[in-house]
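Justification of computing resources. Each target in the renewal requires a structure prediction run like the one illustrated here; the chain below, 397 residues long, is used simply to show the kind of job we budget for.
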Amino acid sequence: MTTAFRTFALVTAVFILAACAGEEEKALKPTELVDFESKVDVKRLWSAKIGDSAEFLLVALQPASDGNRIYAASRNGNVVALDPATGKAVWRTELDMDLSAGPGVGEGLIVVGAADGILIALNADSGAELWRANVTGESLARPVIKDDMVVTMTIDNRLRAVSAFDGAERWTVEQATPTLTMRGSASPVVVGTSVVAGFDNGRLVAVNIATGNTEWEAMLSPPTGRSDLERLSDVDGLISVVGQDIYASGYQGALVALASESGQVLWTREVSSFEGVSADWNNLYTVDEEGVVIALTRRTGDESWRQNSLIRREPTVPIAFQTTVVVGDLEGYLHFFSNFDGDPVARVRAGSKAVSIEPVVVADRLFVQGDDGSVSAYMIRQAKRPNDAPDVSDEDA
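Resulting structure tokens:
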């Protein structure tokens, strides 16, 4: 979710104190887009409207796949299964509540989180509702499903597990909550028999899925400074796993590589990120609090390149897609950069409002959910010859 929206209250306070005006206001505007020569051909395959706008709401609604279908949920309670080739709805279920997270997909279930603290499980084949569970707190992180468990992180700094069969509570892990936190949560990730989650106190915690016992804790982003604002250290962004290595980042902290079996820190780099970190086999990709896109080598954490063209454009975490990395922004654009050197290679507009959560890659397709309530699918075609294409797609937004 985007930096500026998620820290709205904090930014408001800073502006009141600073009384920004004139040239200072101008300096804080998003970086203007510049022309460039497209080097890859990005084609939109389809776009489907699934529900109402979620602009400015800081929700964690993002497409997911089980390999056969694409599942998505809208703020106003629609959950849909889409044909990945055509975007046509296979089924649609309308729930009677505002949704804030999901869908999580697995074990024949589709699970979404509601703003009032309810988890809802649907049958993946038909969309029929199976159960509801009260987890007592709003979730802003996609639930994960593993074996007979559904695990979710709620904004009260609790990691909760319920039965995948009936929603009955299994266990809860809680960490101390700082006085001041940002709105958002990192989606838990499964590594073997453990689930790894980030908390608002800067800690990354591994929990045994079956028992709820804590296996290890790592301080990812130690709070520093005198004020509550200076001591913000939330781990709210994307956590990535490659093999047995875990990669995560914290606000006003660091980007860290850890061993999944022990939590031992393998290396650390000083990068403050709200959005987290994504990974391919060779590289890691993140965006810092200013909006600078950064690539690092996965094994050592050495910086490979950085791209400054999206500063203050509220970019999502970059996602690897074939030979590019893709970033959404506050105006609904998708920016494609070379994964080799970070140069811009394409730009398309996904919709009329922001893309505030990272795109999803399934096989050779890219799926994007915009804040306008639409889901779109894209592919990259063969490379173009020089000078034969505009820098911005002329497809309708």
